[in-house]
Amino acid sequence: MLDRHYRIAPFDERYEQEASRKLVFSELYEASKQTANPWIFELEYPGKSRIFDGRTGNLFEQPVITGKPYILKLIHQVDDKIHGRSSGHYALVTQQPLRGRAKQGGQRVGEMEVWALEGFGVAHILQEMLTYKSDHIKARQEVLGITIIGGTIPKPVDAPESFLKKPTFLRLRGSFEYEIQSWKYNIPLFFTTPGFDIFRNREISSGAGAIREQLADLDLRILIDSSLVEWKELGEAGSADNENEWEDRKVGRRKNFLVRRMELAKHFLRTNIDPEWMVLCLLPVLPPELRPIIQIDGGKLMSSDINELYRRVIYRNNTLIDLLTTSRSTPGELVMCQEKLVQEAVDTLLDNGIRGQPTRDGHNKIYKSFSDLIEGKEGRFRETLLGKRVDYSGRSVIVVGPSLSLHRCGLPREIAIELFQTFVIRGLIRKHFASNIGVAKSKIREKELIVWEILQEVMQGHPVLLNRAPTLHRLGIQAFQPILVEGRAICLHPLVCKGFNADFDGDQMAVHVPLSLEAQAEARLLMFSHTNLLSPAIGDPISVPTQDMLIGLYVLTSGNRRGICANRYNPHNQRNSKNERIHENNSNYTKKKDSFFCNSYDAVGAYQQKRINFDSPLWLRWRLDQRVISSREAPIEVHYEPLGTYHDIYEHYLVVRSIKKQTRCIYIRTTVGRISFYREIEEAIQGFCRAHSYGI
After folding, report:
1. What H or E segment, with its residue span, contains residue 127?
2. CATH 2.40.40.20 in the chain, residue ranges
């Protein structure tokens, strides 16, 4: 506001390499000399304090950071966090960008970020995040060529790689489907069994096959009708007799069971699912890409745990088939035992530990089953389907940018050149500064001057998305217009921090680049920070000044509070431009009073020339058509001039009247700080009115 810009020193490397570290080290060294405490600065542990055990008197092994040396934690944190990626290597299984700065990995757009984007209604941004910027192999190759050559990015017509990994099925023949080749020896034994007359009209079976046959004979509609009739009968019986509390509880539990059974049966009918499908006959087999076998150094093979669990199922199932088909005299107990082993192997494959003690390998490590790969935050659905790692993304630490507009952010050159690399290559080729992609990349690596000029042109029409995790509501990800800044940190306007729940103590943010024209339009129209000024939860303003900003506005507009005594000559109240009291023997200020200015530009010019201070009281001429509100009816003081005019002085304004008591002009008592604040508010209101009139 007053052309004074401030930056946080620990992240500012504009002066020299290691400038911040040298500054803090020198201060700690001087402090150790002045206080005669060498522990303040030790070469081995600079800025850390050695702590003693109060019981034994021994030193703890690791020193800790206390007091002002805590700033060392923030120094060069940006060096560890800054990272950007346009494209690179991809994971073998998921085909998504790798993770980590060392592998040139991409930033993750998790499920919470996806929900925030859904809250904005940005369909095209979501589409490119989850397809050709992540794991859609064919589409991302097309996009890479289009961004360099130029053209419109097509919409992907098929599913990404994560949704194409469909399982096949392994038929468990031995468990439920087998045929006895000959009844030659079994039929006579069956008919001569004692008690045959009791069960000769019954069909005897056991295991999952029996359950499957019962479920196949189940009529769901009859089940619903009979359950409804029983529920009504229980209701009538309960209303007739309410004396026995135990019976009432029993009836209530039965009624709840009937309701759940009817709901389940209706769900089966609504989804066209047969109940016998709940018994597993076909075991899903994951494709090889999801259970890889990788050769490591030394020729050894490293296999997924799923492969070992599948091997156990297949081995036990084949053993059961051999027992049923080849050996006619196999005891029934042995067949039943083998069936239990097959069931145990299938249970371990689906959910290791469901039977109690989990199965372990030779190194006492628990096998990871289906449920371990699917469930939880790191499971397949939440890790690779609901959220994905994406290209054209980066991250860095945020610092305050006091000179930025609300809708702008400052991107370091190191991140910007990586994010917009393909667009810069296209600009170099189109303007004939490079003949091919290889020459353009060499110019980018050498950081030639023309590269930065083209980068600025590209960034002028290209918004970016900033995201701070965790994304608790939709304002956790917003769009900004990027500009190039020095240093290695992302500059951000302080008023947008509340939406991100961020502060400037080392927080980091991820930056994403929308590629297609539709995605860029959505970012500008729906996600720009200056269009999201209200809380989506309660509707209150969210971009409001707080804390240090309020203190700054208070100091700017408070004035030095000299009171009405400054209107006339009072040597005890005279001050210079530095707000220092003037002595009586100083003839330059003996007859000085508050300055009068015809307009605000003259007052600001006097401040810039250092003739007055920003909180020095002054009289500013006011328009007659603008009303001045005062709490006094009579003036505090009246000054008469030799020509007959006189001044009615009130608490905050002054009225110049003629001999005929006509108002000639009005002056208000203010300061340069208040003038600057008023001009900013007036400009903002006028801009809002213009935008509102254009919208109408």
Report:
1. helix 123-130
2. 82-161+391-420+462-531
Q: Are the C-beta atoms of residues 359 and 367 closer than 8 Å to each other?
A: yes
The Cα–Cα gap between 209 and 203 comes to 12
Closest by alpha carbon to 289, among 139, 140, 88, 90? 90
Instruction: Name every residue whose Cβ is closer than 8 Å to that of residue 463 and which is 6 or more positions away in sequence.
Output: 479, 480, 481, 482, 514, 520, 523, 524, 528
Residues ≥6 apart with Cβ < 8 Å to 484: 410, 411, 413, 416, 452, 455, 456, 459
Q: Say how many C-beta atoms besides its own lie within 10 A of residue 244's C-beta.
A: 10
How far is Cα 165 from Cα 333, in angstroms, rounded to an integer?
Answer: 40
Residues 468 and 375 sit within 8 Å (Cβ to Cβ): no
CA distances 84 to 15, 127, 455, 492, 561, Å, are 24, 21, 15, 18, 52
Dist. CA 465–CA 392, nearest whole Å: 11
Residue 388 near residue 394 (C-beta atoms within 8 A)? no
pLDDT at residue 686 above 90?
A: no
108/378 Cα distance (integer angstroms): 13
402 or 204, greater pLDDT: 402
Question: Which tokens in the block code for residue 383?
Answer: 């890790």
Of 168-177, 346-355, 433-442, the least confident? 168-177
Q: Distance between CA atoms of 682 and 600, rounded to whole angstroms?
A: 13
Which pLDDT score, from 0 to 100, does residue 181 have? Answer: 41
Q: How far apart are CA 98 and CA 108, in angstroms?
A: 10
Q: List the one residue out of 393, 416, 436 whose CA is nearest residue 149.
A: 436
d(CA 391, CA 384): 14
How does DSSP assign 602-640, residue by residue? Answer: HHHHHHHTTSS-TT--EEEEE-TTS----S-SS-SEEEE
For 241, 242, 520, the CA distances from 245, given in Å and listed in that order, are 10, 7, 67
With a cut of 80, say whether residue 315 has pLDDT above it. Answer: yes
DSSP H helices, 241-289, are: 245-271
Give the DSSP letter of residue 109. E
Q: Which two structure tokens, joined as six digits, stand for 233?
A: 């009968």
DSSP category for residue 433: S
Is residue 452 over pLDDT 80?
yes
Q: What are phi and psi of 329, to 5 degrees?
A: -100, 25
Structure token pair of residue 470: 């965790």
Q: Which residues contact 580 (CB under 8 A, 6 or more apart)?
A: none
3-class secondary-structure state, position 654:
strand
Confidence tier at 409 by pLDDT (50, 70, 90) = very high
Buried b (16+ CB within 10 A) or exposed e, 197-218: eeeeeeeeeeebbeebeeeeee
Confidence check: pLDDT of 522 > 90: yes
**β partners of residue 284:** 169
Give the mean pLDDT of 260-287: 89
Closest CA to 344 of 373, 307, 305, 317: 317
82-161+391-420+462-531 has which CATH code? 2.40.40.20
Residues 6+ positions from 217 with CB-CB distance below 8 Å: none
